[in-house]
């Protein structure tokens, strides 16, 4: 990360406490990135909720198509059995050609209806599969957006460089208005309460 120094609230060779702010980077852009990442995440979550509502409606469509197919299948079996019965009766004195033709017509009609209902049911199942795939993609997108938000928040935190321990800083290496980037030395600890020294640089 990079940016312009907003302020350096410590003096040269000042003693500082752990967590005390040493350098602040202008954070307007980083706050904007956090805000945009939050909007993106909310948008992704809303898309998932919208898809869940569509899936609920699709479940109802599948159930309706299944009921229609089941009912038509029962009618088809009934009319086929009736057609067989009428043909059997035709071989005796109890049947007529007209009744056989009527039974055959009914069986054919329900066979056609059953085929249409089966095709409709398969189409509803395919649509559900499409929605399932879309949900997986949306959830993956939302996960990526959450990661982007987490990173944006981390980068925002990095705009405030704080003392890692109590101690004393050296002469400041940067001033307000100066542009810094990852690896730029901004200030150094020349002595800490535990006796060690370290250089504070811009985080990457």
Q: Short summary of the structure?
A:
By secondary structure, this protein is an alpha+beta fold.
CATH class of the largest domain: Mainly Alpha
CATH architecture of the largest domain: Orthogonal Bundle
The main pleated sheet reads as: 4 strands, antiparallel
Averaging pLDDT over every residue, what do you get?
90
| Shape, principal axes of CA atoms | rod-shaped
Oligomer: single chain
Could you name the ranges where pLDDT drops below 50 across 5 or more consecutive residues?
Answer: none
Distance between the termini: 6 Å
How many strand segments?
8
CATH third-tier fold name of the largest domain: Helix Hairpins
- CATH fourth-tier homologous superfamily of the largest domain: Helix Hairpins
* Series of secondary-structure elements, N-terminal to C-terminal: EEEHHEEEEE
Q: Helicity, in percent?
A: 55-70%
Helix/strand-derived category reads alpha+beta
Give the total of domains: 2
């Amino acid at each position: 990360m990079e940016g312009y120094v907003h302020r350096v609230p410590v003096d040269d060779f000042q003693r500082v406490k752990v967590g005390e702010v040493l350098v602040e980077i202008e954070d307007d852009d980083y706050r904007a990135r956090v805000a945009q990442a939050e909007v993106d995440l909310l948008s992704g979550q809303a898309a998932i909720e919208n898809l869940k509502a569509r899936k609920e409606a699709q479940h109802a469509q599948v159930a309706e198509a299944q009921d229609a197919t089941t009912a038509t299948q029962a009618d088809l079996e009934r009319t086929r059995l009736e057609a067989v019965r009428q043909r059997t009766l035709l071989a005796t004195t109890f049947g007529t050609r007209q009744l056989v033709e009527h039974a055959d017509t009914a069986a054919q009609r329900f066979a056609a209806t059953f085929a249409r209902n089966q095709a409709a049911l398969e189409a509803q199942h395919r649509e559900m599969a499409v929605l399932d795939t879309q949900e997986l993609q949306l959830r993956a997108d939302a996960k990526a957006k959450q990661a982007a938000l987490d990173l944006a928040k981390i980068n925002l935190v990095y705009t405030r460089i704080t003392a890692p321990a109590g101690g004393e800083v050296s002469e400041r290496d940067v001033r307000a208005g100066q542009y810094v980037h990852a690896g730029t030395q901004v200030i150094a600890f020349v002595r800490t309460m535990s006796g060690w020294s370290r250089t504070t640089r811009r985080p990457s």
